[in-house]
Design goal:
Elements lengths: L9 E5 L8 E5 L3 E5 L4 E4 L3 H5 L12 H11 L11
Antiparallel strand pairs: 1-2, 3-4
Length: 85
Amino acid sequence: MEESTRAVRYLVVDTSNWWGGHKVLISSEWIEEVRWIDNTVSIDLSRQSLKDAPVFESAEQLNRQYEEETYHHYGRVFYWQEEPR
């Protein structure tokens, strides 16, 4: 959570139930649907892109460089920049 705005910026996704597994970050902005009934979240990302995503180890690792790597990996616009016009 971002302290100044109280925005939830990321969710940590544990992929261990798909394959060897690791933890990755996804931006809360990329969530398309939350289904509380079956505890799932839908996002417009492939399993392969999650598998190949930069591994997230801990909150200490969360810095601008890691955020840029993650956004670049997913081909997304950084939340701190405006969309091109």
